[in-house]
Amino acid sequence: MLSFKFTLLKSVSFPFFKYPTKTLISISPKLMASSWTCSSCTFINPNSLKPTCQICSNPKPTSQFSSSSKPTSNLEKWSCKACTFSNPYNLSSCEICGTRNSPFSSNLNLDDEELELGSKGVGNVFLPLLQKCSNSSTNNKRKIGDDSVDIADLGASRAFKSSNKKADDFVTVDDDTFDLGGSRHIKSAGKALVGSDETQAKEDSRTLKILSYNVWFAEDIELRIRMRAIGDIIQLHSPDVICLQEVTPDIYAIFQRTNWWKSYKCSLSLDKAMTRAYFCMQLSKLPVKSFGCKQFSYSAMGRELCIAEVSTQGDTPLVVATSHLESPCPGPPKWDQMYSKERVKQANEAVDFLKKNPNAIFCGDMNWDDKLDGEFPLPDGWIDAWTELKPKEIGWTYDTKANPMLSANRKLQKRLDRFLISLRDFKAESIDMVGTKRIPEVTYMKAKKGKPDLELPVLPSDHFGLLLTMSAR
């Protein structure tokens, strides 16, 4: 008789750092053979004979793909194109071989009503899967040498400059032709992206709006309904530039099918989005001179700086950058540093790269903790938009008290999301939080160990978004 021994391993969870809650991508054999991601600290380990994480000694996972979701009927399954295994519809990758389900399959091919009335509970898979945000193409990499480098050789456009002269720094530029929903195409002409008339700068307005939003990659909590709510926020405020964090391939595919998407140019093509577990993404209604990406000198979590150079009224240049800085997660040597050193270094690299621009905005999920990280590093002439415009308001964008969806979590109130700005030709008029209201008549069940499940309301995200409004001087 065979006997089995089971050992229960207790994993540590950290409120700042979050994992995608389902299988998100299919990993290439080369990547699977070269590295594996620790489910505790997220360090990307080389595939050596050592069975434990080099950082926290957590055991190497025995399987990258698992599911705890309940069986579904035959009508709720999709067949893997590689191995033909019938998978539950709530999984985006095959349980057997890891091949990703097409974003155009039936589980995403929904009309607006289906998006609103999506199944309650899109799955219970909790897969700590991380992948470094990398671009496979080397043709678009530009070395930054002693002189400034044009990100996309845009003629009249000024060049981005970097104060960091390391030879291994590079900027990646997407010169692809994007199909935004089928209604129109953004074509590469002289490496400058030119859109239709409806996406040109507003010629009758001197007001610009920039939205930054961590959309939360928790795909098991009413994903379609939450993304529809975020889309409603976008349609309500009609921001000129949108900076999103924690976008997954499924979230990308859902957004791409909406009507509001057709008014924007996107920094990532669908093909590139499908190769990443989660990522930052930028969209612009304004004419785009370039979309770029700069890798940080170090990130255990694959974080990077995403950059958009756009033209405003009168061809005034504006650079908008976003990032998702290193998440607090205990690490050696004292297991109390929470990646603060890395986060501070990333913040410095970002502002150093952007500070030569006359009009620059750096926004996103900074994961910033003033008690842990100190004051945010701001060069002369830069301001924190929230503290400047709303000095009497605390500005917590992650708040387990104000966000009832998080009320079952331990208390945590932080101003994680920020707008850092330096504007010569513009003036910041206002900054507001968005996504602070619950979605009517939508709830989810929160599992509590040793206690009955809790029914909690659903908000668009675990973060509140920030909307900056500014005007030309």
From TrEMBL:
Subcellular location: Nucleus, PML body
CDD domains on file: TDP2
Cofactor dependence: Mg(2+); Mn(2+)
Gene Ontology biological process terms from the UniProt entry: double-strand break repair
GO molecular function, one term: zinc ion binding
Alphabetical UniProt keywords: DNA damage, DNA repair, Endonuclease, Exonuclease, Hydrolase, Magnesium, Metal-binding, Nuclease, Nucleus, Zinc, Zinc-finger
Cellular component terms per the entry's GO annotation: cytoplasm
Domain annotation RanBP2-type: ranges: 78-97
Primary localisation category: nucleus
Protein's UniProt keywords contain Repeat: no
PANTHER family in UniProt: TRAF AND TNF RECEPTOR-ASSOCIATED PROTEIN, TYROSYL-DNA PHOSPHODIESTERASE 2
Name assigned to this protein: Endonuclease/exonuclease/phosphatase family protein
Organism name: Artemisia annua
